[in-house]
Specification:
This protein has 169 residues and is mostly helical. The protein has helices at 12-43, 47-74, 85-91, 103-134, 138-166. The protein contains five helices and no strands. The N and C termini lie far apart (63 Å). The model has no long low-confidence stretch (mean pLDDT 86).
Amino acid sequence: MDTTPTPAPLNDDLLKEVFHHHLNRIYNGKCFLYKTLPGLNALASFKGLQLAIDEFGEDVLKQIVRMKTIYALLGETPIDNECNPITNIIKDEFCLDENQTVPLLNDLDLMLYIQLLEHVNITSYRMLIMISKTLKHDNIIQMLKESFDESQENDKLFTLIAKEYISQD
């Protein structure tokens, strides 16, 4: 006898609920990240990394503004999620040790955790784009694509910074 639960049938109401859930996670995570970026920037010892974090912060702010627009278009408001994986990673201060005697370790950890967050966002934006297409939210798809593209570019930027930092060329 098969005891596998039957998934709930997909309908617009369920898709809207999933969309709002993931939008809240990204929004709350980005808002919290934006508030903590100055402290993370202060931990960076490499000037190129500090500049990349500043550029990253500008993109985070743009994405927050876009998400506020999406909420308005949907007639929704953000809901503060107490259990937010993105916020929890940041609250853990990226497991950085400010007393580190080797700045390279902190800098590479900063890059690692920022890229980890961007990978979560890339996946979440991709899912939101798919749901938006199904719900025919054409006015929202472009904003999500712009945020998706920025997250991908930030991931590439931090990869280049890491290569520059550890390269002996």
